[in-house]
Amino acid sequence: MHIDTITSPELEWQQEALCAQTGADFFFPEPGSSVREAKRICGMCPIRAACLTYALDNDERFGVWGGLSEKERLELRRVSR
């Protein structure tokens, strides 16, 4: 039995994301683990900006989004205010 995934139009960009082809382990590491590999992959991703915008707009608190860690996104929010 095949079940189609329903994708919201505003999230279609995720289908092009390199992380979708890599797996979540790099992007949601255990606390204290390195995010270097996730950032390297994000650096090559053609939709990095859309990813970061989504994370900031939706207050994503965990993982690497758009090449930035949780702490980096928090700092970006503070500076942007």
> H/E order of the elements?
HHHH
Count the DSSP helices.
4
Distance between the termini: 49 Å
Query: Structural class of the secondary elements?
Result: mainly alpha
What is the general shape? globular
> Strand fraction band?
under 5%
- Rg, rounded, reads 13 Å
Protein name: Transcriptional regulator WhiB
GO cellular component, one term: cytoplasm
Family: Belongs to the WhiB family.
Pfam families: Whib
Describe the fold and architecture.
This protein is mainly α and 81 residues long. The protein has one domain (12-80). The protein is 43% helix and 0% strand. It has four helices and no strands. It has helices spanning 18-22, 36-44, 48-57, 70-80. The termini are far apart. Residues 1-6 have low confidence and may be disordered.
Descriptive keywords:
single chain; 81 residues; mainly alpha; 4 helices; 0% strand; disordered N terminus
Which secondary structure elements does this structure contain, and how are they paired or packed?
Blueprint: H1 18-22, H2 36-44, H3 48-57, H4 70-80
Cofactor: [4Fe-4S] cluster
GO molecular function: 4 iron, 4 sulfur cluster binding; dinitrosyl-iron complex binding; DNA binding; metal ion binding; protein-disulfide reductase [NAD(P)H] activity
Organism: Streptomyces qaidamensis
Provide a brief overview of the structure.
Its main location: cytoplasm. By secondary structure, this protein is mainly α. The protein is built from four helices and no strands.
